[in-house]
């Protein structure tokens, strides 16, 4: 697993090549403020090869955050992360590996009849109860998440996963109440706390799309304070002295800045944005969709672009996401070696200071 010694040694090796605060604290270690994501792409051997080459280039160029999920490309993304990590010249203890569970995954390719596949492999086997399955494809129940964690460990070829997210729990709101979801999360967190105690897992978190960046009255809102409270209860139930809830993941970019601008969570001093609440609660925030899944590479609003360092729109978008208070790492999907090098080059510039970042929203 990623260790303090391993990640600090990685920083010592690469740190001078980048701007200030490129490496940021995560637990007792440090991680790069650029992370490599593995969401996009067809489930083919050719794309697997592209990702393996890109991941190797990233690891050997100064990026030590790898983000994936069991459902990405039908488990292929996890497997290629494992192969690339094993084949690179970088020490495993230098790299933060994060994955997710929640969406029922296929295996290698999309089956001819997805519904029948899920029924046969997950419902009929008793792994997922029918009333736990929302939209026919999403489940966050403890037994299912624990099985998915086991499968992810195998896919990645790892003994310990550094960060495991419960994936998009707001999906459950389509059929279940918030209270039911919080209760389920507490049970799942308890199971994850137990896996921490067994050394299969270092930390866990919650990855979302809408839940933390929308107003409390929004139909897809979930409360960060409530989730943090449930994690504390889970730690106590598992016999741990402190919670291992460590991170949130949510979209953040020039066009989706809600995590900074929308006051959606009750903090000690009033209602706060997701990023502010997370920072005060000791939660690391990982920004997904930092370049809008590629769309921002075509250009940023001129008033924002002129304030940012970078030779391309993609570089400026990365530096915008890296500049937000509370963001630990900006995640960017990368399966092209040239894009890896371009994105790393963006980080040789300093991020915006707090005052300059705030001024963007004036």
TrEMBL record:
<dbReference type="InterPro" id="IPR053135">
    <property type="entry name" value="AKR2_Oxidoreductase"/>
</dbReference>
<dbReference type="InterPro" id="IPR036812">
    <property type="entry name" value="NAD(P)_OxRdtase_dom_sf"/>
</dbReference>
<dbReference type="Pfam" id="PF00248">
    <property type="entry name" value="Aldo_ket_red"/>
</dbReference>
<protein>
    <submittedName>
        <fullName>2,5-diketo-D-gluconate reductase A</fullName>
    </submittedName>
</protein>
<dbReference type="InterPro" id="IPR023210">
    <property type="entry name" value="NADP_OxRdtase_dom"/>
</dbReference>
<feature type="domain" description="NADP-dependent oxidoreductase">
    <location>
        <begin position="34"/>
        <end position="212"/>
    </location>
</feature>
């Amino acid at each position: 697993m990623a260790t303090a010694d391993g990640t600090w040694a990685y920083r010592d090796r690469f740190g001078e090549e980048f701007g200030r605060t490129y490496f940021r604290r995560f637990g007792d270690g440090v991680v790069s403020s650029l992370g490599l994501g593995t969401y996009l792409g067809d489930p083919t051997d050719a794309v697997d090869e592209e990702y393996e080459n890109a991941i190797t280039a990233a690891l050997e160029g100064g990026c030590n955050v790898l983000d994936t999920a069991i459902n990405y490309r039908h488990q292929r993304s996890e497997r290629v992360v494992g192969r690339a990590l094993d084949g690179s010249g970088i020490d495993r203890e230098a790299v933060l590996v994060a994955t997710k569970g929640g969406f029922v995954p296929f295996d290698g390719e999309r089956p001819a009849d997805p519904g029948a596949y899920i029924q046969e492999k997950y419902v009929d086997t008793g792994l997922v109860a029918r009333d736990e399955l929302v939209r026919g494809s999403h489940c966050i129940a403890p037994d299912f998440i624990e099985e998915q964690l086991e499968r992810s460990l195998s896919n990645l070829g790892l003994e310990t996963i550094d960060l495991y997210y419960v994936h998009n729990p707001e999906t459950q709101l389509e059929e279940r109440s918030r209270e039911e979801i919080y209760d389920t999360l507490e049970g799942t967190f308890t199971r994850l706390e137990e896996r921490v105690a067994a050394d299969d897992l270092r930390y866990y978190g919650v990855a979302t799309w809408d839940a933390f960046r929308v107003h409390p009255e929004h139909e897809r809102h979930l409360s960060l304070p409530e989730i943090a409270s449930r994690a504390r209860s889970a730690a106590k139930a598992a016999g741990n002295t402190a919670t291992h809830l460590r991170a949130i993941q949510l979209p953040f970019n020039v066009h989706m800045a809600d995590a900074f601008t929308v006051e959606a969570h009750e903090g000690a001093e009033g209602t706060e944005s997701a990023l502010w609440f997370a920072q005060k609660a000791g939660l690391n925030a990982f920004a997904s969709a930092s370049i809008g899944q590629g769309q921002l590479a075509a250009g940023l609003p001129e008033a924002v672009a002129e304030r940012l360092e970078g030779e391309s729109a993609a570089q400026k978008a990365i530096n915008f996401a890296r500049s937000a208070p509370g963001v630990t790492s900006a995640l960017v999907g990368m399966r092209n070696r040239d894009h890896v090098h371009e994105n790393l080059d963006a980080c040789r510039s300093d991020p915006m200071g707090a005052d300059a970042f705030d001024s963007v929203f004036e």
